[in-house]
Amino acid sequence: MNILIAGDIVGGPGRLAFAAVAGRMKQAGQVDFVIGNAENAAGGRGITMPLAEALFAAGADALTLGDHVWDQREIVKALDREPRLVRPANYAPTCPGRGWSTFETPLGKVTVMSLQGRTFMPPSDCPFRAADAILQRGSADLGKIIVVDMHAEATSEKIAMGRYLDGRVSVVVGTHTHVQTADDAILPKGTAYLTDLGMTGPKDSVLGRDVGAVLKKFLTGMPQQFEVATGDVRFEGLLVTVDEKTGFATKVKRIQEKIS
Ligand SMILES: [Fe+2]
Ligand SMILES: [Fe+2]
Fold first, then answer.
1. Is 119 left (phi over 0), alpha (psi -120 to 50) or beta?
2. What is the pLDDT at residue 133?
3. For the whole model, what pTM was predicted?
């Protein structure tokens, strides 16, 4: 099974880039399952249901979220209804939505899990123990193919999660920092890994936002309106081939494609 995973999709430019690459690869039969991190899909802040529907129509089978999950109020209710939207699993048990979702596909069950780091991030429960609790359900429930989005700031925390889950899941990829790292690998026990997928959005920016406004904030310390930038729009992510019999990765390929 070929799985395409897109780094944080930022605003309109990110949604266009996602649709261009994911749509093309899916139509050409190059990918069987597509996941994108959509925490910045709505003008950089969270996601709305119409935008989620547009990303599903463009080829997404599941969308993961992150610390921006609550930015658009209307999504709060939708999270309980829409199994293709996955927010971090290590939030309070009373939070709306789900931390993992299992999908039936022609090549077997696929589980998508989201976790959030705790270093320089809003407080949350332990992501390592949250992963254990989900994986305890076993492969009869979850299937052999399990993809984990580790939404975190610290490189060490993401690598530690990759190593913790090595051999227990198919893929661990990092999101949130919006800059693709060059450490794509298959870990010793068979799990595909990349510290950060990068960003699907405007690269001529500071993490997708207009450079001038971000600089003004750093220089003055005053709150600024951060508009989504427009230049050098790219799709960034990872393409993973997983052996559906074992659940282990056999091939990883980083993707960076310039759209406009
Ligand atoms: Fe993000
Ligand atoms: Fe984030």
1. beta
2. 98
3. 0.98
